[in-house]
Amino acid sequence: MQLEALRKIVVDALEELKAQDIKVLDVRGIASFTDLMIVASGSSTRQVKALADKVIEKCALAGIRPLGVEGQREAEWVLVDLNDIVVHVMLPQTRDFYNLEKLWSVSDRSGANRTAGA
To answer: What is the pLDDT of residues 70-116, one digit of tens each?
Structure first.
């Protein structure tokens, strides 16, 4: 499946269950393990788990199985590894603490940020 089609499936699944502050980070060239990271927040551990489950469900319907899923039991931060895309669904306070957007975004020579909105 093409990267853009998979990105759309993931973002649509997150939007369907009202994920907050969805960010798509293009990490090609700075990470060797994936092309995109998608970071989103849920308002409770129940919503975080439901969002991750919805991503897994929608990807399965498209014939994509995750390489791994971590954090479902605690549901403060659930990571879904789809190989070309790694999805991070987090509680807002967990997201603020780890600040993945800052960690994985870089500025190009013009000063523009490589972080792209959904």
So the answer is: 999 999 999 999 999 999 999 999 999 988 888 877 544 334 444 45
Angle subtended at Cα 77 by Cα 72 and Cα 81, rounded to the nearest 5 degrees:
70
Considering the entire predicted model, what is its pTM?
A: 0.85
* 110 torsion bin: left (phi>0), alpha (psi -120 to 50), beta (else): alpha
Cross-strand pairs, 41: 20, 90
Tokens 């549901």 sit on residue: 75
Sheet-wide strand order for 77-81: 68-70, 77-81, 85-90, 36-41, 20-26, 115-117
The 10 Å Cβ neighbour count of residue 42 is 25
If we measure between CA atoms, which residue out of 8, 36, 7 comes closest to residue 100? Answer: 36
Residue ranges and CATH numbers for the domains of the chain are 3-106 (3.30.460.10)
